[in-house]
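Section: Multi-chain targets

For targets with more than one molecule, the full set of components is provided together so that the structure can be written out for the assembly as a whole rather than chain by chain. Components appear in the order listed by the source. The example entry contains two components.
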Amino acid sequence: MYGALWRVLPGPWWVRLLIVLVLAAGVVYALFTWVFPWVDLILNPIDVTVEQ
Amino acid sequence: MFGELLLTAGALILLFLGWQLWWNDAIMAGQQSEAASELSAAWAENDRAQREPAATEDPAAAPVDPGEPIVDATEYPNGESFAVMYVPRFNAPETFDSVRNIAEGIGLDVLNSYSQGVGHYPGTAMPGAVGNFAIAAHRSAYGGGMHEIEQLQLGDAIYIQTKDGWYTYRFRDFEYVTPETVDVLSPVPHHPDLQPTDRIITLTSCNPLYSTAERIIAYGVLESWQPGAANPPAEIADAVASWEN
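Its structure, encoded as tokens over all components, is:
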């Protein structure tokens, strides 16, 4: 999976590394901005109250 | 291929935990603190505007007995902020950032809110009243309004500001209970049948840290109060002034 990604990227190794880092940063940004807030809503909420 | 998927899933879970417990926690804490600062400053400004210009206080005058605390009788709708909590012990070093809005209700709309974070148990007493002013907040994640609750020491101040003035509670003791122990919210904790004579505050949060297996309860007793939202206790005047900027 990641090996295939590495092979389809163009350029010498350091250009590929740069592209991979930029892609990873984009993925993390998307996760933090949209995915994780949504996942957080559907997970069991953290409960802090005393209730019957 | 399958191994790579598993590794990716593991990395995603760790990343989510990092987001929930630190990244989003820090963002929410900053915004909750900011929102509470604004409400506190707005009340102070409103209070100063209402005072008579002639009533400039003589600093040498003997302190006036403020009398019985004003107790707000308003029935606030769920989700409305009606008080501000400030606990110096909860501050990050060199900051006054532990200020939070207290809103009516203990639902996630309040506790996970970017502008509130501390909820008032409906039906319990209001600030300054005889009985039990009971509030809840997260200990970890979502801004962690009570993240440092276990660091409270005997006599630590818990300041509550409302539009009417400043209420100073002093921390008394902890209790660790199961999540179903609603008796801690009674006007006299654990004695639902007794008539209260003390004015107390009860903080509830989860315990242990990063778990929800138990609840940590912190009790405090009203020490004093000062009328006027622009009239904070002298020892926190610098903190309150910093919120107005």
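Chain A touches chain B at residues 1-2, 28, 31-32, 36-37, 39-40, 45-52 (CB under 8 Å).
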